[in-house]
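Feature request, filed as a ticket because there's no other form

It would be nice if the structure record came with a short human-readable summary line next to the tokens. Right now we just get the raw output. Example of a typical job, pasted below so the devs can see what we mean:
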Amino acid sequence: MLRRLREAGYEAYFVGGCVRDSVLGRRAHDWDVASAASPAEVERLFRHTAPTGAKHGTVTVLSAGGAVEVTAFRREGPYSDHRRPDSVAFTGDLLSDLARRDFTMNAMAMGEDGGIRDPFGGLGDVERGLIRCVGEPRRRFGEDALRMLRALRFAAQLGFELEGETRRAIGECAPLAASLSAERVRDELVKTLRSPRPELAWELLSMGLMARYAGAVGPAPPLSRLPQYARLAHLCRELEMRGCIGSAEEFLRALRFDRRTVRAATAATAALASGSRDYKRLLRDYGREAVLAAWPHSRELRRVLASGECWSVDGLALGGAELLDMGLRGRELGEALSALLEHVTDHPEDNRADILCKLIAEERERYGENS
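Raw output as currently delivered:
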């Protein structure tokens, strides 16, 4: 791709995260190209394209190797909404294009020969493990408030530290994050929680970057010892206990999490709040996914799950169809299933159809005698 652009007379480079990841020896998932070619010229040069961001100079080139975004060298105008530029101007100048980027590690360009153009010291910052803004950090964050959350997320994913002035600027500019969409904030939180350093999720909160959704927190328990699927629930439980949120459900809905995640994380938070370690009843009340998220390292829970013991109505040896045949209907049928499950929870050896039928018969006889 770079070669075709160059042969057509246009300067072109790989830019952004793919260059950073190449320097770090990491596999790059997306390859982005910056070029002196205009969007119209890119569309003319490549057969299969999609105008995914023509207003901002971006055309996606589709090939057998995957989709590559090609963006014209540009300079950006003011950011009145603290998220996207009001206007862009195509410059034909690589230096101006790199100067508009967020962090030095993302402001490097790589040519076809693998040579690196690095006008802002990104290579040195990568070697030192530093996240540093390109130029004045307060200006960068004023342009796009999402960059503050991205800085912490990159630190969590890469194991880097925030350069001092960049960190101070986040503290000063944090109120601007209130202008971000809930979906953007949620995505950065999730990526941070799934990273090797999920503890930095607490910094998203303590630095005020999520003040629209939760109060600030001080030192908090480590999350890295937990599997990824359990971290959101434990974060919610900690926030609930500290009074930083009204409830896990309210917090997760405000961040536009999908229904399944809201349901599972809220149930796991409630299981933790119950204080119980009666795993069969917890499984009955909150479900397998929630209880596993609440106690992912519990050997006793794993034993219960592996034992095959009954902890839900579905696991009873006697089901609703059999109870219907016995003449139970409506409320009486539901109460019978609940009573059988309660009995089997305490006496797993009784989970046999003959024994459960006998229990129902005895209960109905007793009820008949007392009526």
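Something like this underneath would help us a lot:
The mean pLDDT is 91.
DSSP finds 19 helices and eleven strands in the chain.
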